[in-house]
Amino acid sequence: MGDREAAFEALYAATYEPILGYALRRCASPDDAADVVAETFTVAWRRFGEIPPGDRARLWLYGVARRVLANHRRSAERHRLHTTGLRDEIAAVAVTDPADGAAIAQAFGRLSAGDREVLALVAWEGLDRTALAAVLGCSAGAARVRLHRARRRLARALRSAGVDHRPVTRTSANGAH
Question: What pTM, to 2 d.p., does this model score?
Fold first, then answer.
């Protein structure tokens, strides 16, 4: 084991419990806290040369954990907004007959794999245009166009299946909708 690895392991052993406690007291779930701790130590590994010596290392890690937690909260809020948007879109489809649920599933299933993936990434995974573009390997503009076209094809498929679909008109801060 190299000097860097040994020093990192010593830092980890000395600071893991305080950093975990910090995260547990601030996160909604132990899983979220584990994510914050893991990301904090990932940052520490990447920026190991910047960590101050002695007890200041623990304080530096608290600062990293604080920023990781802020990012985690922003991500959770974006996810909540996307989930709310998905609920709005689902509510816009009037499903008064249980057969409509099957018709919706069939309409979605008739879309191309690409359209299904674009819609699922936005609706189920909560990705915005920028993240969608990164996953698809294209520009944000191209991702926006692909999403718009996939939504249009889904609306057409729903209409042809006889499902009443009222488009949702709302503005999103991240421009995904």
Answer: 0.48
